[in-house]
Amino acid sequence: MSEISTQNDSARLNRARLRYRQFRGQWYSTPLLLTAIFGTLLVLPLTLNLYAFGFSLGTWVSVHMLIITLVWATTGQAWNMMSGYTGQFSFGHAAFFGLGAYGTILLLSTSGVNPWLGMFIGATIAGLYGLVIGVLCFRYDLRGHYFALATLAFAELLRYTFNTFPQLGGASGFFKPLPRQYADEFGLAAFQFDSVLPYYYVILVFLIIVTGVSLVIKQSRLGLYMFAIRENEDAASAVGIPTYRYKLVGITVSAFFTAWAGAFWAMYFDTIRPETVYDILINVEILLPAIVGGIGTVIGPIVGAFIVIPLSEIVRQFINLPGLDRIVYGLLLIGIVLYSPQGIVSWPGRFFEILEQRGLYENTIDNDDSRPDE
User: Fold this and answer.
1) 0.85 exceeded by the pTM?
2) Any transmembrane segments, and where (predicted)?
């Protein structure tokens, strides 16, 4: 009797696995999943104070925490467009984040330039800086660890430069001007609000835009060439793909959108300093969501951010032990690399593999669930 029950369970699991695979094979699966994710995020802050079964989500999660999570989801998505798609692992994206922040606040404080215009100017400067890094590194064929160290060096160069020159704010940085100094009042035009909720929706729009660009790139010929470079750059070059050109495109686009998040950071907090936007740990914050969620996937950086950031914030708030959040980061990285190197988005496929390995069900369909979700 138990054997018949086990066979029935296996049949049901196989049907579920087949339906899941068929769904993921459709062109609309990723846009549909993203629509569901962003629809949930749209109403999420409005549900924090609702009680169900005596429990309120707001007890553990705040709008501020959600904003920080969306910031790192945005940077993770931007980082993924270069490192995840072309395989050029960057450990220096703090350079672009900081240029976006300083480009916005420096122009605002010294020249009264509207922060929205300053954001695009800062993002353009960051894109050009990324292009310079790419030209210098890719021309000399730096790859792997050497490229990662080179990007870190370029980020550290900016940190020491902004720390040294008083014209750039020096070590004390800049304080955010009040809206009346360059605009009429708080609001969207001033990029400043008198409550945190509008900031949430601004960064959510940023994330939607960056995710849309990432999805378009991945499903285009450009994305096909980028992934060919990631899998085997020499083979891609041998079949006529201009690898140098597409790597430059990847780093420039990635730098441009990373700077958006930096600009938001500058307008969200009251002050910025080199140590807060160029710090080496900013590089970790940027790349961690994509690594945990799934490198080279569109959904991965978003999922990874909502695993890593809330967990570290909760630990930081409720356990009075300095540095524990960094330990959590390290444990997460070790766990993902060792047990799920393709990230959290590969877990649905891994779930069936684990059941099969433990003899809990018999697989009767071809096993090709190793490819992570987009």
Assistant:
1) yes
2) 25-44, 50-73, 85-110, 116-138, 145-162, 199-217, 248-266, 286-311, 323-341
